[in-house]
Fold:
Amino acid sequence: MKLIEVKNILNATVFTNHSDDYLANVEVNQACGADLMSDVLAYVKDKGLLLTGLMNLQVIRTAEMMDINSICFVRGKKPSQDLIDLANDTNLVLLGTENPLYVSCGKLYNNGLIC
Amino acid sequence: MKLHYEISGDDFLAAGKASSAVKKVLSQLSVNPAIIRKVAIAMYEAEINTVIHGGGGCADVIISPDNIKMIFKDNGPGIPNIELAMKEGYSTATTEIRELGFGAGMGLPNMKKYSDDMVVTSEVGKGTTVTMTVNL
Ligand SMILES: Nc1ncnc2c1ncn2[C@@H]1O[C@H](COP(=O)(O)OP(=O)(O)OP(=O)(O)O)[C@@H](O)[C@H]1O
Ligand SMILES: [Mg+2]
Structure:
């Protein structure tokens, strides 16, 4: 699935300076919903999307180390400017959706983003 | 090539700077991305431990033709039982750290998984040294 489809399915906002054209070219092979970065570091295997309700600089750092290419913050949470700056520096796409974590994962799964 | 980083013990949110810097250096050296990922994850886990458990310290990274060595040193409380600390799920992290998304007791097992060799030495009241090697 392309990241632009993720954006459309979740009716998401883009916080970083990535255009829709850019998102249309980013492939998402795997998604993971987690609030525990310890688990993300231990179990995520492929480049992909992290859906999370957790919001701090270490979420961005974790994504950087794991080669995760996009994060979607759930339940309408908005990242602060320092998070957005760090994400832009490492070319990580930050999205936000009003949907809660469970619903966001369900919608993507239903649309064919299976694990 | 030898790199040295000081790791501050009182700023959890700044943790990861050394790992991020090393990841950039390895990319510039065109190291295989799978190897970079192993180094980045192992180093980041170690850096977080140095901050949250060791009270800060330093990291030395030595890049040789055959391997990458990462040495983390702190003068913190030490680990009384290393075998126990290595078990998945064992953690003494505080509630504050858990609220920030860490403290599941997965770091040391993960560092072992992503490195080709890992040695932990520790003395209670003196500090801890973790040496990890990733082969190239
Ligand atoms: N540098 C250190 N100094 C003192 N104690 C340490 C150090 N590193 C690890 N420990 C001890 O070993 C335990 C296990 O470490 P480990 O990294 O596996 O888990 P954690 O840091 O508690 O949680 P996680 O890594 O999943 O966020 C820690 O909770 C702590 O008690
Ligand atoms: Mg740890």
Remarks:
- Residues 36 and 54 of chain A are 8 Å apart (CA to CA).
- The domain at 3-110 of chain A is CATH 3.40.1390.20 (Udp-n-acetylmuramoylalanyl-d-glutamate--2,6- Diaminopimelate Ligase; Chain: A, domain 1).
